[in-house]
């Protein structure tokens, strides 16, 4: 029956002035972006057919008075302007305390700890520099080699995962930062190998994205370490391949598997942010984990540099 009742309407400001309406109260509504907005409340009577309602709360906003908006906000309902019907939406409540604490307390506390703890600040700077590296790669290689699998991997994997790493780090989620590193490593390694297949003429005139997918499928079937040993080692210098395998190991067992996480947690006598989960500010108990993350980011930066150097040689030889 709700959609058959006039629940939401707007009275223009000039009518409000003619009626000489006065607000009876002011309330604060916190939006989903964390910004609080004070609005004035009016009491308005209304009639719809045989239905008559007195003292309906109305919100004064902009140049109008919105009747029923407060009720919809509190009920978690949305009026579909096309169909003229109400539909329920799953949203955070405007006064949701968890969302408010995330915006106003947790993230600011993590960021403050990054500024005050040298190791946390150095690690954050390393992550930002890695993101800047990606911008340089795309600027230097994006336009002339848009059909390359490696360049494509920058756009569809490396950049999103780098942005995810920044957000994760600012939320205190070190394991997720290492997950982003591993996902990126697998993607760019497979993309580089796909480009080698194209350059040697094995898959001439075939879409590079299709070849990249075939390589990724092969990795899924045989495992990443086996792929590096059997295939990648023949396409890259030994030291580069060893760096790739080493980083893949460093971001896997100790961070992304339950046994590794438990071992890491139980080694420390103090409670670290890793054991407590996200949103805990970094402190001296996290220094070791932060250094490991910093080393992993540095390794990824070095590997990316080596991949693009070898890839550039590959492009010159194919021409």
**Intertermini distance:** 71 Å
State the total count of DSSP E strands. 7
Based on CA inertia axes, which overall geometry fits?
elongated
What would the average pLDDT be, to the nearest integer? 77
SSE order in H/E notation? Answer: EHEEEEHEEHHHHHHHHHH
The class by helix and strand makeup works out as alpha+beta
Assembly status: single chain
Domain module tally = 2
Helical fraction equals 55-70%
Overview features:
2 domains, 5-stranded antiparallel beta sheet, alpha+beta, disordered N terminus, 319 residues
Give your account of this protein's structure.
By secondary structure, this protein is α+β, with helices and mostly antiparallel strands. It has two domains: 2-94, no CATH class; 98-318. It is built from twelve helices and seven strands. Helix 8 packs antiparallel against helix 9 (238-250). It is elongated and about 85 Å long. Mean pLDDT is 77; it is low at 1-6 and 90-94.
């Amino acid at each position: 029956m709700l959609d058959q009742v006039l629940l939401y309407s707007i009275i223009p400001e000039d009518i409000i002035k003619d009626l000489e309406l006065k607000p009876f109260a002011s309330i604060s509504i916190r939006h989903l972006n964390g910004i609080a907005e004070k609005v004035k409340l009016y009491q308005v009577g209304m009639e719809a057919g045989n239905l008559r309602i007195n003292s309906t709360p109305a919100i004064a906003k902009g140049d109008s008075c919105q009747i029923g908006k407060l009720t919809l906000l509190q009920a978690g309902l949305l009026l579909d302007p096309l169909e003229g019907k109400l539909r329920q939406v799953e949203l955070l409540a405007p006064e949701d305390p968890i969302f408010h604490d995330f915006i106003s307390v947790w993230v600011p506390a993590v960021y403050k700890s990054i500024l005050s703890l040298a190791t946390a600040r150095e690690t954050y700077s390393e992550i930002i520099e890695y993101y800047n590296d990606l911008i340089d790669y795309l600027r230097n290689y994006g336009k002339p080699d848009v059909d390359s699998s490696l360049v494509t991997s920058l756009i569809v994997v490396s950049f999103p995962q780098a942005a995810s790493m920044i957000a994760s780090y600012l939320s205190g989620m070190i394991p997720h930062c290492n997950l982003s590193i591993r996902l990126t490593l697998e993607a760019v390694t497979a993309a580089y190998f796909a480009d080698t297949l194209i350059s040697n003429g094995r898959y001439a005139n075939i879409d590079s994205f299709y070849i990249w997918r075939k390589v990724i499928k092969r990795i899924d079937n045989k495992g990443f370490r086996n792929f590096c040993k059997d295939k990648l080692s023949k396409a890259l210098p030994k030291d580069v391949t060893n760096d790739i395998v080493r980083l893949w190991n460093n971001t896997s067992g100790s961070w992304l598997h339950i046994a590794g996480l438990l071992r890491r947690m139980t080694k420390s006598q103090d409670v670290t942010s890793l054991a407590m989960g996200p949103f805990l500010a970094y402190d001296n108990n996290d220094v070791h984990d932060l250094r490991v993350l910093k080393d992993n980011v540095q390794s990824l930066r070095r590997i990316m540099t080596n991949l693009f150097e070898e890839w550039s040689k590959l492009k010159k030889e194919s021409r």
